[in-house]
Amino acid sequence: MMLLLLTVAVLVLACAASVAVGARPVAPGTVWDAFTAFDPANGDHAVVMSRVPRTVLGLVTGAALGLAGAAMQGVARNPLADPGILGVNAGAAFAVVLGIYIFGITNLTGYIWFALAGAALAAVVVYMVASIGREGATPVKLALAGAALSAGLMSMLSAVLVSSQQTLDTFRFWRVGSVSGRDWDTILAVLPFLAAGALIALLSGRALNGLSLGDDVARGLGQRVGLSRGITALGVVLLCGAATAAAGPIAFVGLVIPHVVRSFTGPDYRWILPFSMLLAPALLVIADVIGRVLLPPGEIPVGITTAVIGAPVFIWLVRRRKLAEL
User: Fold this and answer.
1) Tens of pLDDT along 223-235?
2) Structural domain containing residue 82
3) Nearest-angstrom CA–CA distance, 25 and 44
4) 205 within a domain of the structure (yes/no)
5) Which residues form the signal peptide (predicted)?
6) pTM attached to this predicted model
7) CA distance 281 to 261
8) CA-based, 20 to 30 A from 36: which of 26, 79, 130, 279?
9) Dihedral sign (CA 48, 51, 53, 59)
10) Alpha-carbon distance values, 259 to 12, 24, 150, 154, 244 (Å)
11) Using CA atoms, how far apart are residues 197 and 203, in angstroms rounded to an integer?
12) Could you tell me the CATH number of the domain that includes residue 169?
């Protein structure tokens, strides 16, 4: 319980920093006044309130990626599973590019449906390819199939972009992953999908615990393995598709956070999932704050910052203890 409260405290501090820190820093007292006694004529109050939507989007996107990464590692029984490595993000990104190039989609409402369809199709293709052979979809085969699909989709994505300057101009700012420039309409558009995906993922803790014992043991305990994987995968697709549509592909959050959480919660997914949902948005929001202050008055997109932070952390985790199959 103390760890849970500490995680919530870190998340609250990250949110406070997000609304106070930027190209125009705002004093903590002014931040408090902006929420309790907002003055439209006060420039600092306006700055604080303009940062609230990107902070909220960082929270919901980070929570979605953390949950999706933890659930995906449980479904695939693979410590390297995350939306990026297993091709889900690449599928969503390629579908969005096709939507821009073929149908001229330029708004988030259109992005959502293409991203969800692309994420779902990529997940199905990876699982089908990995299932070929006598052993079925083993963790190693899933990772290899995901890496191969990601490479293929990104190659085709690049081919589309170099053939259309207009598509490139529309896509390039979304591609790097960012929570800036979004408004409440963006959040409201993706919120139903994120809420549904989060509910499915959080309720799958007991099923993931069974899957972690192996398919044969899970079946022996009366668990319907195929149904459990399918329902959890649906939650992952909803989370990844909606998060990617809103903020673009953001790497390493879904990969690193479940390993960090697992180091102090143990292997029980009933704890891993909620802790991942709280710790991942803290990382994403902090990375966004860092990106704002490194190169003022410009900003580094959060997708780049999370990769810079996440890669060394993951290397340290790998060196600190061998990551066994889940």
Assistant:
1) 888 788 889 988 9
2) 55-320
3) 9
4) yes
5) 1-23
6) 0.86
7) 13
8) 279
9) negative
10) 22, 35, 23, 27, 22
11) 10
12) 1.10.3470.10
